Amino acid sequence: MKSILVAFSTGLLFSLGLGLGGMTDPARVIGFLDFAGAWDPSLAFVMGGAVGTFALARLLILRRARPLLGKEFACPPTGGIDRRVVVGSLLFGAGWGLAGYCPGPAFASVASGALETLLFVGAMVFGMLLYGATRFARS
Fold first, then answer.
1. pLDDT attached to residue 139
2. Which helix (H) or strand (E) holds 52?
3. d(CA 114, CA 132)
4. Is the pLDDT of residue 124 over 80?
5. CB proximity list for 32: less than 8 A, separation 6 or greater
6. Measured distance CA(35)–CA(90) in Å, rounded
7. Three-class SS of residue 80?
8. Can you say how many angstroms the Cα of residue 131 is from the centroid of all Cα atoms in its chain?
9. Residue 23, SS3?
């Protein structure tokens, strides 16, 4: 039960940060990506603040012998850059640039009830399910 509460609280805090930082506004995101036109640098400050906060918190957290709410730190495996990483990055970037959403802000924006947001999230979830089904079928 404690882990569910921590996950919910973390997600809620993340969603609030995305909303307050303007990351859920597709027009602002597309403006940030429009280097040749009317570039809006405001999201660079949001991202810089997030990266700086994470870097400082990581330094403090890794001084501990173990996490507060777990048995050990879970670090993702490191691996090389392969075709799947490159293709996935290209698809992510294309979706972000065309729609103005990446997955986190898109899920946070579902609460707005905007049709374009619901369509984007629906298509994204469908793509995730399709990938999972094809990956399962191959194994």
1. 66
2. helix 42-61
3. 27
4. yes
5. 39, 40, 41, 42, 43, 44
6. 18
7. coil
8. 18
9. coil
Integer CA distances (angstroms), 7 to 31, 67, 69, in order:
32, 15, 11
Between vectors from CA 93 to CA 92 and to CA 98, what angle results, nearest 5°?
Answer: 105
Residue 44 in tokens: 């660079």
The CB density around residue 113, as the number of other CB atoms within 10 Å, is 8
- Tens digit of pLDDT for each residue in 79-93? 788 888 898 889 888
- How far from 72 is each of 63, 65, 66, CA to CA, in Å? 13, 8, 5
The pLDDT mean for the chain works out to 85
* Rounded Cα distance, 100 and 26, in Å: 4
pLDDT tens column, 24-60? 888 888 888 888 888 888 888 888 988 999 999 999 9
Instruction: Give the global pTM.
Output: 0.64
Give the integer Cα–Cα distance in Å for 129 and 136.
10
Number of C-beta neighbours around residue 42 at 10 A: 12
Euclidean distance between CA atoms 120 and 132, whole angstroms: 18
